[in-house]
Amino acid sequence: MKQVIFALIVLTVACCQQKKEKISSVHSDHLAEERVSLKYATGFSITRKSGSISVTVNHPFQGAGHSYTYLLVPRHEQVPQHHPDVKVIRTPLNSIVCTSTTHIPLLDYLNESEKLVGFPTTDFISSKNTRKLIDAGKVQDLGIDKGINLELLASLQPDMVMAYAMNADYGQFKKMEDMNIPVVINAEYLENHPLGRAEWIKFMALFFDKEAEADSVFQTIEQSYLNIKSLAETQSYKPSVMSGIIYGDAWFMPGGQNYASTILKDAACHYLWAGDSSNGFLELNFETVYEKANNADLWIGVGMYSSLAGLAAGDHRYTQFASFKKGKIYNYDARMGAKGGNEFLELGYLRPDIILQDLVKIAHPELLPDYTPYFYRKLE
């Protein structure tokens, strides 16, 4: 799963508000277009035209030099003329296969969970609602993510596969399309703004004619996030924060313009690498991290480590940090699914307000005296 390395740190998001604006120009075919403007998300764009919807995924993977455009046409409508590279999707969907656990909450919050018919390695799913469907045999396990059982997928004949791409390799998706199964790329993980990823619920909603429902969900999440952010802004003291752990020879942590850095800032924390100009993930050696973070107040996000003893056993050098000595280390594994899935890695993209509230509780407990963190827990 793509979250294994990326979820070292704090996840995400700051909500959005959608506004619609008429494009004044009328094309030669006399059909006016309506462009939907998104407040935070930059990874996709939406245009309406005469009953159909054109949605473009602007950046399908890191470093992509091209985009993908999908034409969403109601089942009872005739497909309008379109460029041959544009893929047609009939809506609303009656069935869908998803490939990332982050897609699952989008279905849950749109009340479309029962449309899910397949998923790679269903053990990773934490959603109680979806687990009931899995246990009832309504969601098929399609095998390992990049080695999906294409025969089983073909037998399900889903209306669409929602996939994600880490690079330009479209080979597996081409095989699916050769079986007349449309593939749509969801690139939510590339959004840098903390609220940007949550806005992708509007992307999912397009395929189910649930745009009004998505707007309502999103506005609620956004308002919650902004309220917590305003509460944190009352604090002048900002505890210093380090993050991440060593994988192989490198310490992975978010760059200064990464979504994780932003959400820490919104929680009134001083992320020690906030001045870095990159929006991806840094790969540093131990000495560089120790020089800057040895006296950090808090250490937030330690990968798969679930205890101080386990962290020390993983690399004895971790014990040299003040945050280890003071027991100020927090991880995002407070809620694990029935089969071992991590709810933070599933729900975090959509609910940055919960993540932010957890971080404010950790950094400024006096602001939320009666709140118990949802995703995070202190390592013992």
Protein described:
The chain has 380 residues and is α/β, with parallel strands linked by helices. Helix content is 28%, strand content 21%. A hairpin with a 5-residue loop joins strand 1 and strand 2 (32-37). Helix 7 runs parallel beside helix 13 (352-363). The chain is globular, with a radius of gyration of 22 Å. The model is unreliable at 1-30 (pLDDT under 50).
Note poorly predicted spans: 1-30
Measured by DSSP, the beta-strand proportion falls in 15-25%
Give the C-alpha Rg. 22 Å
Q: What percent of the residues sit in helical stretches (DSSP H or I)? A: 25-40%
Provide a concise account of the structure shown.
With 380 residues, this protein is α/β, with parallel strands linked by helices. It is built from 13 helices and 19 strands.
Which features would summarize this protein structure in a list?
380 residues, alpha/beta, disordered N terminus, 21% strand, 5-stranded parallel sheet, 6-stranded mixed sheet, 13 helices, Rossmann fold
SSE map:
Layout: H1 3-6, E1 19-26, E2 32-37, E3 44-49, E4 52-57, E5 68-74, E6 87-91, E7 96-98, H2 104-109, E8 116-119, H3 128-135, E9 140-141, H4 150-156, E10 161-163, H5 171-178, E11 183-185, H6 201-206, H7 211-232, E12 240-242, E13 245-247, E14 250-254, H8 259-266, E15 270-271, E16 281-284, H9 286-293, E17 298-300, H10 308-314, H11 322-325, E18 329-331, H12 343-347, H13 352-363, E19 377-378
Parallel strand pairs: 5-6, 7-8, 7-10, 8-9, 10-11, 12-15, 12-17, 17-18
Antiparallel strand pairs: 1-2, 2-3, 3-4, 4-5, 13-14, 14-16, 18-19
Helix pairs in contact: 7-13
